[in-house]
Amino acid sequence: MAFAVTARRRPARTAETARRGVLTAVGAAAAVLFLLPLWWMTASALRPQEETFGTLSPVSVWTVLPRHLTAENFGRLGEAGFTLAMANSVLVAAVTVVVGLAICSMAAFALAVLDFPGRTAVFAVMVVSFLIPFDAIAIPLSSVFRDVGLQNTYAGLILPGIGNGLAVFLLRSFFLGIPQELAEAGRVDGLSWWGVFWRVHLPLSQPALIGAGLILFVFQWQSYMWPLLIAPDPAKKVAPVAIAQFAGEHGVDFGGIFAGAVVTTAAPLLVLLFFQRYFTQSLSASGLKG
Amino acid sequence: MATQATVATEPDTGAAAVPPRRGRRHRDLWVALAFVAPALLAAVVLRVWPMVRAVTDSLHSTPLGFGPTEWVGLEQYRALLGDPAFLNSLVVTAVFGVVINPLQVLLALALALLLNARLPATGLMRTLIFLPVAVPQSVSAVIWAIAYRPDGPLNGTLALFGLDGLRYLTSPGQALPSLMVIVSWIGVGYWMMFLIAGLKEIDPTLYEAAQIDGAGRWRQLVSITIPQLRRQLIFVLVADTISNLLVFAPVQILTNGGPNGRTDLIMNNIFERAYVAADTGSAAAATVILVVVALAIVVVQFRLLGTGEED
């Protein structure tokens, strides 16, 4: 940015090359440092436990490179109920994304396109509500959910994820960028408001929908405290809770812990890598503009 | 922030060609309500209701094993503010925040500046630094727990240089910094992305003009980049502060607040009040205090963003 634009082509060329070399090295070192824990986790999941701990002190290249590849660490996860936990996580996240997108995009449409008395008030209620961080009120919310019989149910796990302020605001600011004339034209052509929403705004908003979907997905897949509070039943355990409990109960089965960590991380990692562009776009759009 | 955009969509008075719609207004209200009702309901049920619940619970006593019953006024709050464990938790949370928030924002800013420069492979580097964001916090916690073991890779690295191993999470002095490392590993890449997005929005002609005026790199950073990035910096600082205020999974999984309460961040303290001590009233009062603090931080954000903002 600021530095690079300079690019003076005068005597200082070698100095400039050296500077770029140093900066690149610093960037690469930072990237490696951030990657290292994940790399080590994956390498250790793929090798026998003795090898993981045999290569630790002092560290060498074999600390991060597996010599004997094996999948046996993953085999033990099935016995520990990990398959069920993964299935629960996938189910909960998938339903959250679908239902959440429906609810959030409808609200965003009303707030951006429709003109109705009380719109400002509705918007204010939504803004103020979602300013309260979810984690902060999770404990009293779990009391409320228990009182209405949502403990140990999929609904109990899913519901907190479907109304997401960030997703609403992101979609709303995207809808605001769609010319109002398109909506009016659709109305003149005989579309209902639902038709305008479904045939005009949604098809035009794919990037924002992916961004909002990712926000909903990441929130739900990262969720740790809420499942701990609302779904103590092992049958409703989700993956992030399963890995923590597995680590607590099988404290010596490090191979299994690494394998579970890889499995729990793989899904969100692949999704985020694949959609990274949309995610970063939504980051810059949400909260900062609108 | 909201007002500006809302105003922009108000039915344009001047721009003709829009048929008069007075007659439809009433029916549109019901259509609009149908669209907005599910999300509005979610907002109220998931945020307002538990908040009301926390306030009422906090005004009642909690006989062991039962729900809160008897009205006690502000007694829970008075008890909390006289409870050394709660005060300790406030201090630990404050120390954690005062150290980690500037640290993370500065690190995120440095990385953003570095990886927004014209260097080879910045896209790959950005992605690698961003990766930990995808890792669930509980996974990060269990992996770092192994890394922090006495016979783990961190002490193995120290041994390489002939240094003695550290105790990390089990040492009263090192436990909180050890948590900061984990939380920063998770978060810095996320905040970096916001700042990179902001850097990309800065008008390049500003830098060209500065160069013509003979401004050096440092001068450009201080006079152009930082002021132009003000909005994103404030947002990141506030959002980061809130997220660090609510750190829970690493504490609950790794230290349970120990050793000696040295890592008893506020969320862990509240969780233990509610689920270990089964003291709903006390946990509710602590929750109310936490939410008030969080909202105060957000209000400060709006104040900072509101003034001197003119585009």
From TrEMBL, chain A:
<feature type="transmembrane region" description="Helical">
    <location>
        <begin position="196"/>
        <end position="219"/>
    </location>
</feature>
<keyword id="KW-0472">Membrane</keyword>
<comment type="similarity">
    <text>Belongs to the binding-protein-dependent transport system permease family.</text>
</comment>
<dbReference type="InterPro" id="IPR000515">
    <property type="entry name" value="MetI-like"/>
</dbReference>
<dbReference type="GO" id="GO:0055085">
    <property type="term" value="P:transmembrane transport"/>
</dbReference>
<keyword id="KW-1003">Cell membrane</keyword>
<feature type="transmembrane region" description="Helical">
    <location>
        <begin position="21"/>
        <end position="40"/>
    </location>
</feature>
<keyword id="KW-0812">Transmembrane</keyword>
<feature type="transmembrane region" description="Helical">
    <location>
        <begin position="90"/>
        <end position="114"/>
    </location>
</feature>
<feature type="transmembrane region" description="Helical">
    <location>
        <begin position="254"/>
        <end position="275"/>
    </location>
</feature>
<keyword id="KW-1133">Transmembrane helix</keyword>
<dbReference type="InterPro" id="IPR035906">
    <property type="entry name" value="MetI-like_sf"/>
</dbReference>
<keyword id="KW-0813">Transport</keyword>
<protein>
    <submittedName>
        <fullName>ABC transporter permease subunit</fullName>
    </submittedName>
</protein>
<dbReference type="Pfam" id="PF00528">
    <property type="entry name" value="BPD_transp_1"/>
</dbReference>
<feature type="transmembrane region" description="Helical">
    <location>
        <begin position="121"/>
        <end position="142"/>
    </location>
</feature>
<feature type="domain" description="ABC transmembrane type-1">
    <location>
        <begin position="86"/>
        <end position="275"/>
    </location>
</feature>
<dbReference type="GO" id="GO:0005886">
    <property type="term" value="C:plasma membrane"/>
</dbReference>
<feature type="transmembrane region" description="Helical">
    <location>
        <begin position="154"/>
        <end position="175"/>
    </location>
</feature>
